[in-house]
Structure formats: structure tokens, C-alpha cells
Specification:
7-stranded antiparallel β-sheet, 401 residues, CobW/HypB/UreG_nucleotide-bd, binds guanosine-5'-triphosphate, alpha/beta, 15 strands, Hypothetical Protein Yjia, Chain: A,domain 2, Rossmann fold
Length: 401
């Protein structure tokens, strides 16, 4: 279908400059008749119906405002109904969506690319997701590099308990274009460092520097770049974990990344006390580890800026019935190569991405958490378990500043 209306979604933390970018694009010469959906969290504590307001700007644009909730969760269906109504009511040939600062990009993209079961409107007849754009605040990232504080200005957790840094990392890792805004507030050498970090966090995205959102509209409209599967595989840490031909640290522009892999489990208490004390220069850590005594589940790590979470996150294949396991291997050739006769797939594989940090001291500290020869003979079930049981759906937050 060639006549579907392309959609560009703007994401990014509070105050990064999404509205500024939007206003810049609306007043620029792009040859489109644009409709706009703006998601403003409003006061989420007010238990009110969402507000959908139409503002006729008198020009070519129409703005629909969705407030008191987030279009990635509570307002998913409402957003679809609104964009459905827009398409019925008006003539326009481009849709711009500004998500709220805490919107997670994947569900928003899914809503446009695949529809949403609870909604009475299927967007894929009318709309085609064209470009996912994330606006980041160069100034707050620079400040965090300088002081070791959070990557975002605002620290309030969203309704699901996720902190803004975690959402920011999702927004960086799942997009086609990264607008590095507020470049006027940051010296050039710092901008180069920030860009190098962004490239490592998300190698696929095009990075564009902006001041007061002065982006060339062709960088974010009609790019045709969005592809769900590619976007989902775009995160730098996934790339490193899958292409683990190098376990040697990769260093470029002061940005270091490496994969840490060990066959023996960690001592649960030692790794639990190391995680909150990881160096501030470590911007991202992802992957899974084996905590002695938890032979039932793999523990996941999610470090995003200064926030660190660790907890039960997935089943070891070794706990599956043999037939199921073989089915799994048949679909993914090569995976069984790492299979251990005694422990199966239980092991630790972690990706670390950071700036200006020395990996060897970190590797040594991680190795100090691995069980010693003597501890390999301990009764691991007698170890305390700081990570919570697998029945807990929520991961345990070890530290979140
Ligand atoms: N110095 C500087 N200020 C900027 C720039 N871009 C935006 N601002 C200012 O930063 C503030 C926040 O910008 P917005 O566009 O409202 O940010 P937003 O991402 O839409 O924020 P929310 O709607 O709160 O999520 C405003 O006061 C802007 O004028 C920039 O490139 N440089």
C-alpha cells in the first residue's frame, strides 16, 4: 500500500526538547500537511478521564492532546481511537506524535506497527510507522559525565516503578534517529564523547546534533527507516552479546565495551554487594549471571546510568524437559556449543559499556565474586539469596539513586 500516512514518533526524557523540535518542524518548509498528537502526562494522580483536546492552529496543522496518562500504557487504545478519528475527519498526509517523557518507545511503535487488541481501530490500514526519533539532552548527559549523577534531569519513577534513566536507555536503544539537542550548552569535545557513547549504545541510529531543535525536517520525516525487527535488535549491548567474537575490550574515543563470561557461578552476596558499587563511568550493563543456589533461574542485570537492577529474569534451558530443549537448539544452531555436561547452559555473560574506565580492575572485582574451588563444594542452597524468588514478578532494585 503506498497511500498510507507516514508517522514519526518523538520520544525522549522530560525537558530534552521534544516540543521545541516539534515546533521547529511545524514551522519549517517540508511540503506536508501535518497532524500532531501530543501526549502530556499531566497530573497522573488526578483520577480523571483522559483529556483529548483539539486545537485548530488555523494553518495546516491539527493538534490532539492526550493527557493524564501515557500512550505506551494507559492511553494506548485512546491514542488509536484519536488517530482513527483524525484520519476520518481531516485531510493530512503526515502524522507527528510527541510521546511523554516517560513513554517507552517499544509499545508505542507496536501500537502503530501492529495495532492494539483493546482498541476498536486498526491503524495499519491508514498509517505506516516511518521514523522513531529520540531527542536527548546533551547538557544533562554532559553534566552526568562530569559529576557521576543521573543521565536525566528528572528522577521520578513512572507508574511501573521504572526510573527515567532506564526509560532513556530504552529510548536510545530503540530508535532510528537520535537528536542530540541542547548542543549550544556543551563544548565540542564533550559532544564528540557523547556521540561516541551514543554510537556504542546504539550503532544503527543516525545521530544529528541540534540546537533548539533546529533539525532539517528530511532527517526525521519520510526517512522510511523504521523496521520493527531491526529496531528491536539495534541495542549495542545485544550486538556485543551476539557478536562475541571479541572478548577483548573495544576502545574508541574513550568509550570501552567488553563481554564478561565465566562458567562458574557468582557468590550471591558478593555479587549483590558489588552491583551497587559499579564505577560511575559504566553507563550500561546488561546480560545474565548465574548466582550459586539459583540453578532454577538466570539472574538479569540492567544498569542504565546510575540505576542498577538485578533479579530473576529467565529460565535456564537446563531446567527444560530434554525434548523441549532439543527443539530450542534445532531452531538456533550453534547455541549448544556452550553446553556443559554437568551444568548445561548455566553461566555468566555480561556486557559492559562505559567511558574512560579501566576494565581490568572491574574484571578483577567480578572475578572476586566467582566461587572459589573450595566454595564449589559448598552447599549453595545454604547461601542467603539477596535477589528474591523467581515467583516475584518484579526484579529487585538493588540500588537506584
Ligand atoms: N539552551 C537550550 N535550551 C533548549 C534547547 N531546546 C530546548 N530548550 C529549552 O528547554 C526547555 C524544555 O524544552 P521542551 O521542548 O519543552 O522539552 P520537552 O522534551 O518537550 O519537555 P516535556 O514536554 O516536559 O517532556 C525549554 O525551556 C526550551 O526552550 C536547546 O537546544 N538549547
Amino acid at each position: 500500500m503506498t497511500d498510507r500516512i507516514p508517522v514519526t514518533v518523538l520520544s525522549g526524557p522530560l525537558g530534552a526538547g521534544k516540543t521545541t523540535v516539534l515546533n521547529h518542524v511545524l514551522t519549517a518548509d517540508h511540503g506536508h500537511e501535518v497532524a500532531v498528537v501530543v501526549n502530556d502526562m499531566g497530573d497522573v494522580n488526578v483520577d480523571a478521564e483522559h483529556v483529548a483536546q483539539q486545537t485548530d492552529l488555523g494553518g495546516d496543522e491539527e493538534i490532539v492532546e492526550l493527557s493524564n496518562g501515557c500512550i505506551c500504557c494507559r492511553l494506548r487504545g485512546d491514542m488509536l481511537e484519536e488517530v482513527g478519528r483524525l484520519a476520518d475527519r481531516l485531510e493530512f498526509d503526515y502524522l507527528l506524535v510527541e510521546s511523554s517523557g516517560i513513554s517507552e518507545p517499544i509499545p508505542v511503535a507496536q501500537t502503530f506497527a501492529m495495532g492494539y487488541e483493546d482498541a476498536n481501530y486498526d491503524p495499519t490500514d491508514t498509517y505506516e510507522l516511518d521514523t522513531m526519533v529520540t531527542v536527548v539532552n546533551a547538557h544533562s548527559i554532559w553534566e552526568s559525565f562530569d559529576t557521576g549523577t543521573a543521565l536525566t534531569d528528572h528522577q521520578l519513577a513512572d507508574e511501573s516503578g521504572r526510573v527515567p534513566e532506564e526509560v532513556l536507555l530504552d529510548q536510545i536503544e530503540f530508535c532510528d534517529v537520535l537528536l542530540l539537542n541542547k548542543c549550544d550548552l556543551v563544548p565540542d569535545d564533550a559532544l564528540e564523547e557523547i556521540e561516541a557513547v551514543l554510537e556504542r549504545l546504539q550503532p544503527r541510529a543516525e545521530i544529528v546534533r541540534t540546537e533548539f531543535g533546529d533539525v532539517d525536517p528530511t532527517s526525521i520525516l519520510d526517512t522510511g527507516e523504521f523496521d520493527f525487527e531491526r529496531a528491536q535488535a539495534a541495542a549495542g549491548w545485544k550486538h556485543e552479546l551476539q557478536h562475541d567474537h571479541h572478548h577483548d575490550p573495544q576502545e574508541e574515543h574513550g568509550v570501552t565495551s567488553f563481554v564478561y563470561q565465566r562458567d562458574r557461578p557468582f557468590h550471591p552476596e558478593r555479587i549483590a554487594s558489588l552491583l551497587p558499587a559499579l564505577p560511575a563511568e559504566l553507563i550500561r550493563a546488561k546480560g545474565f549471571f548465574w548466582s550459586a543456589g539459583r540453578e532454577d533461574v538466570a539472574m538479569g542485570i540492567d544498569k542504565a546510568g546510575t540505576s542498577v537492577r538485578a533479579g530473576p529474569s529467565g529460565q535456564w534451558l537446563a531446567t527444560l524437559p530434554k525434548a523441549k530443549r532439543e527443539q530450542f537448539f534445532a531452531a538456533r544452531p550453534g547455541l549448544e556449543d556452550d553446553w556443559d555436561d554437568e551444568w548445561g547452559d548455566r553461566m555468566t555473560r555480561l556486557v559492559f559499556i562505559g567511558r574512560e574506565f579501566d576494565e581490568q580492575p572491574l574484571i578483577d572485582r567480578l572475578d572476586d565474586c566467582v566461587l572459589t574451588d573450595a566454595e564449589m563444594n559448598d552447599d549453595w542452597d545454604a547461601y542467603p539469596d539477596p535477589f528474591g524468588r523467581s515467583e516475584d514478578r518484579r526484579e529487585l532494585a538493588l540500588s537506584s539513586q
